[in-house]
Input
Amino acid sequence: MEATTDLLRQHAEAQFKEELSQLAAVDKRQKPPRWLLSPWAVLTYLMGGKLENGYEISPKYIGNKRIMEIAVATLTTDRALLLLGVPGTAKTWVAEHLSAAISGDSTMLVQGTAGTAEEAVRYGWNYARLIAEGPSMQALVPSPIMEAMKLGKIARLEELTRIPADVQDSLITILSEKTLPIPELGSEVQAVKGFNIIATANDRDKGVNELSSALKRRFNTVVLPVPATLEEEVDIVARRTEALGRALELPAEKPALEEISRVVQIFRELRAGATLDGKTKLRSPSGSMSTAEAISVMNSGLALAGHFGDGDLKAEDLAAGIVGAVVKDPVQDSLVLKEYLETVIKEREGWKDFYRSLRHLI
Amino acid sequence: MTTSIASKNKTDLARVHLLGIRHHGPGSARSLEASLKEIEPDIVLIEGPPEAEALIKYVQGPPEDPSNSEEAADADRLIPPVALLIYAKEMPKLACYYPFAEFSPEWRAMLYANQSRIPCRFIDLPQSHWLSMQSKQKQSAGIDQVLSNLTEADKIRLDPIGTLASLAGYEEGEVWWEQLVEQRSDSQIFEAVSEAMTALRTAVREDEEEERSKIDEDKQIFDEDYYIEPLREAHMRTCIRQAQKEGYKSIAVVCGAWHGPALAQTVKAKDDNQLLKEKLKDLPKLKVEATWIPWTNSRLSFESGYGAGITSPGWYEHLFHSDKGSDTTLSWLVKAVKLLRAEDFDASSAQVIDAVRLVESLAAMRNLHHAGLTELQQALVTCVLSGNEMPLALIEKKLLVGEKLGHVPAEVPGTPLMVDLQKTSTRLKLKQEALEKLLELDLRKPLDLERSSFLSCLQILGIAWGEKQKKKIKTSTFHETWKLQWQPSLSLAAVEASIWGKDVRQAATARAIDLGSNSPTFAHLVDVLSLSLDGGLLEAVEKTMTLVGERSATCFDMGELMEALPVLVGIARYGNVRGHNPQSMDTLITSITERIIVNLESTCLSLDEDAARRMQRQITLMEEALRLFNKKELLEDSRAVLHRLASKSNIPALISGRSAKLLYECSYLSQEETVRLMHFALSAASAHSYSGQWLEGFLTNNAQVLIHDPIFFHIVDDWIRGIKTDAFQELLPLLRKTFGAFSYSERRQISERVQSPGKTALAETSARADDDRLLTEVLRTVQLMLGVNHDHQ
Output
């Protein structure tokens, strides 16, 4: 085992070990089978709060508590949970912490890609053994999902919609019959109580494999929204930009909060299809305009300013990034942006620099 | 709860049952009905306006005789939602609504009394006093201001049960009440509520004492409340004593739970009488009228009368109708799923099962015994709608509001809107006549302006008395012509319009706002705006303007926007004829135009012929509107786009031609450039149909250019002569359409030109005539040689 301090990133259950054990100590409420914590304690772990013994739990998810309640309540029934949302809405983050809090283990993970094969979802074979001994339980290589079924833990499936449709469909038996047949051995693995699946999916991406309605029906879908207020989002972007800037050793100065809030404002307005004051409706571009993209606009702006500018973050450093984030469809989106520029930015006091530098680019 | 109010007369043994209810609470209604059946009172007293007592008799349940067809039975009885309307006879604006739904406890109480044939009375402070207090108040305080001024104490008073529920950790007062009802036996519930109310009242009183110690000018409105409440309660007590005196033995008093403790208090009759006398003596007594009017479920959420509105009447109705003990969760979800299926969403029974399970565990996580509306909706979104909340909005109206229009039988006397309509028409000297009549209005005269506004308001309300004529006798902008005709059906329309307000203007404002927010197309919305402006409804104008701004930003159909422009510009230019000039109109027009300019070119690509024809007309409308609007920047921008439309070959020919015409007309394009464009469009390489359509675009309403400008004439002339016979036959309908639209004299002038090109010709044309003469000679020789005998002139 490596020393934990050398790891680039720790699993949630290791990083927040202390919090989890404190929670378990005070948790007196009823637990579903094989859950390490009661649903209420899981909720506290996610949303943060002060325990009876005065211990402070840090919030993992900043946002609407109601949504987390639905997510946890879903897992107490035997329905699988699908976390849906645009990129950068903390889907994976929530899934990891949920499984850490419920099963104490967030490692039963299948990463969905366009190349994910059925073996990754069901089981594969150790071919050397298969040839030497013939089909047997020993020659079988279980997938994380199969492991979770045996142990009664939470399995995670990242980017469900990126998985090819035929592989997705192999989940149906697991979700409805709670069993995984192994026809080669004439046997099966039946899920133990406590097993469940948390899947994450992205509903804005193009080229995803839409879930079949048979599969969709087997999931409870919880949509994670984008940050609710400008302040909340500016805060998230500022922190992440600063953290990333440090990691990449960007030469520019730390971005002024004012620039961040202007970029976030543009993102929020285009995403919501309305100006912040609610007076003007706008058309939204086809891209997702997520918080994560706002962060990357800030970063590329910093890099531009640092390497090619005077180190001061200016509107022209950000403009290219903004155009790149907004214009995904060259015809429709540039019309949307043009309209936004002419009807909103042009009139806005103190935004002349943004107007000029954006107008240059489209 | 059974209390005997102290009375000097010891032999009086009347039992008074105080039944504290929650206004519009279905749970309350149910326990009330049960209690009434148990008590079997010989009189029912209800917290309601005494002036409307005569109207109680109209409250009847559905006839029990099943042989009657349902429609016939429904036609002549009150069908909730309806409202009692109390209004000052002289000033119908001063009015108060008491809406009732089927599940309103007061409605159930009236129904009970009528069905068991016992007397039923309203015992609240008469509205004549209340309204006269209102009339004394400054009218300046709008409802918004009132709501924003609500203190904690006021909120408690408005919805005491909701307050108790939220204290108990419930979001929804009704859920809390339901659980109380189901946990306790019915006879005890009123007692328990009364106890809780006593505690609340004490708390609020303390709060208010504190409030009052700080002198606050802004809180005058609620000072009224502060002293009117003891008055109301004193009046109610007096009425109860009166009933006792009359010898009723078992008296059921139905009042807001809030008042329960006060009515149970032992107060000397003398004190009450003195208080009433003292406070009411200064007040002028207003003459008030009462009537039933039809109400809608969505308007149940209005705060009026009882001061208690509800947001989801459909949900309450469901709660009321689902039998006690049956599974409200399941039946509600099934109902929702049915509606979803009707909207073409997939929703299976298996999903409903999952949703029920999620609702249960959600309720458990939130420490609720029963799930409320919040849990149900969240489960629906999560399990059935795959996290998508949009479909919910589609069924929300049917599910949560349960849109319903009440019915009032004809024998109930008229509504204030009708009264106001009569009064106003008399004042404006408009006679309700069955004969059709034209009315000429000069908007510079105050009377005529008012008439025009009034008629426009009626139009908004769907009372089609007058119809504005498009063809005016006089063309100036301050003249209007109306066609008037009164039909009996309009009286009915007036009754229907009564739900929108108490007088014509107010009702029209409400209706216009509603129409505007539900209008199917952008053009319709703009019509509503223009009507509201005609009606002089400033509030509605403001709201619809905002809507127009919003809708225009998301409207993808540039054509719709372009068609709306002339109306908007008309308002901006001539709005002040009517004495108001909406400031933001200019900004609105500018932003709409800018959007059109940005999108126009891409919109014009790939249009079929019909669409191109529409677009051609819309472009003309826009250009004309912009000329009228006369803003240099916009005109320049739009003309630059038109220039691109005129010069690009992938734009439909009709549109290119029209753009060229519009630009030439305003001298944006020089003659030279226009000629070049025309040459280009009519050049031999272009398809004939393209050229033909270009010509149609260019020449429609533009014969003058052919008559007076020989250059254009010759290009067209050459082109037509160059067409081969087959192609010509194909083109003929199109050409006929273009030229046929010219007026007779225009066609005559053109044909003269064709027949004698030399007559008005310039040097250039005469040279051509010479050529022709020479050519004739040659032709003659050739004909001779070929032996063809052709009489060529």
